[in-house]
Amino acid sequence: MDELAQLRKRITTSFKLCGFLIRSENSTYLAEQLLPFEPAEREKWMTVITENLQGQKLSTPHVEREALEKAINELNRVGLDEGETIFSLIDAFTVPRYRYNTRIKKFELDTQPRRLLTQPRMKSDYLQQRYAMLLQKTLRHDLFAPAVIQDGVAAAAQSKKFKLQYAENLLATSHLKEAVVLGLLTQLKEGKFFVEDPTGCVELDLSGARFHAGFFCEGCFVLAEGSYANGVLKVDGLGFPPAEQATSSRAFFGTGNTWGGESTKLLKYSPRLQEVERTNTETTLVFLSDVRLDLPVVMDKLRQLFVGYDSCPPQAIVLMGPFTASTRNHHELRQHLDALGALAAGCEQLKKQTDLILVPSAEDPTAPNILPRAPLPECLAAGLLKAWPRTQLATNPCRLQYCTQQIVVCRLDLMAKFCRNTLHFPPDTTHIEQHFARTLVCQGHLVPIHPIAMPVHWDYDPALWLYPLPDLIVMGDSCQSFASTQHDCTVLNTGSFVKSKFAFKVYIPATRTIEDSEIPGDMDAS
Q: A Pfam family name for this chain (predicted)?
């Protein structure tokens, strides 16, 4: 009798002594979880697991898989408060929605039900909420906040202050020498651009404008500075709303969980999770994008990746699509996902300790090209889920929480969309990644672009917000990989796994560093 069978028999006996009955498939699952431990440790674990099951007050003596998983998860979280988790994946459709209350100057949780086919008013409402978010942080910025008077002297006399105008203020006058307006950059007439806010819209003359850093696409919010005359704002400078440190932003949300997940409180300041994060120096997160499972050479490289990580499993391996060519053949994708599960055969430590997260692209089947995108259907990944039980099918985008760190993952060729739709291409192309990162950080949004270029579900637009700023934004863009940090937020692009000679990124949360990795081998000829 092999060791696994002996352990299963021991589990069944131990459970019977405690008054429980356990089916063979559940005893096999528990035996696989306990197998890596020494015999003495296994006995201890069986004792504490049965004690936990007794505390769950099960309605029947039969122990189901769900109760076992709950017991194991709770025992792995010893020392953590209720709702605190070391690692979790957060579905974009469950991200909480907050609205800014101008009266109390705070964000409040919006508990109204949301739908994919929502009310027509939401077409403008989601843009108004995005505008309100950008307006309140802009008004707090040093350039726009009123000067503080001390002993009759303005403390900020040395620095120039701006007064933010609304569109209706400009439309109510004929001339204004200096004006700064925050609004949506839009093209209401062919070849003519306007800045629009909830009070109205003003035509822009951009012929002499100086563009600040970033990609200025129709559909983003801008600060337009210039002189107003005869219904036209002649723009001298066009910039973005100022970025704001996440620590400052969170002060206006209260103690609620703005990030999402099971916890009722924000886990960012949990002292226990901070200690776990500091001591787990070997923990890593692995990111790959453009993982074409229909290419044999990619499957060979993934096998090398799994075998290599079996001795030192990461916390999670995140695979981003497209997983096949855009044939929309559902059955073909199911076959490739089954083959992906077979690649991990023999990598038992990896399958037990690592979450495999699949993030679909716009080309993957069963969902329209609208963000947020639903995950791959479980029916297509049934074989993979059986072979690798810790597989999780994610939305696009999705959120990750590792201890106190907040990570956004999005699979989108956004750089090409920016370059194709920008009014002004940055002259400094050697640092184009900084323009990309600045655009996301200042806009506080994943896709600050016209809905025609990238449509979004109006009711679920808050799932795309980057406010307060997360610790890490992982973009799966097929352009060249890069990393740029601004305002304590790192924007990482993984690049294409196929086009970059099978390169991928490894994030180390304990040190907040990113490592470039590549799978070596002589299979490139394939």
A: DNA_pol_E_B
